[in-house]
C-alpha cells in the first residue's frame, strides 16, 4: 500500500491541476482509509499524497469539496503517535492552509490547535 500511495502521489504531480476531477468521493475515501491504516508507513504516505492532492487541486474544488472532507484527517494526522506520520501530516497541513488562502480562518477551529501543539 505504501508503494501504491507513492505511485498515486507521482500521478498527481504529473497531472497537476488536471487531476482535480479525480479528487472525488472515492479518492478521498481511499486516502481517508489509508490515513487510518494500522501500518505507519501507509499512514505517512497517505498524508504525503494528501499534500499533493491539496497542491494540485484547483482552489474552487478545494474549498467546495476537498477541504471540508479532509480537514479532520489532517488534524488527526498531526496528532499521530509516530513522528514520521506527524511530519507528513504537517506538510499536508501547510499545503492545506496555503491552498485555503483567504478562507483559512474557516478551518482554524479544527486545525489551528493541533498545528500549534505539533
TrEMBL record:
It comes from the Eukaryota. Signal peptide: none annotated. Coiled coil: none annotated. SUPFAM superfamilies: ARM repeat (SSF48371). This is CLASP N-terminal domain-containing protein. The lineage of its organism: Eukaryota, Sar, Alveolata, Dinophyceae, Gonyaulacales.
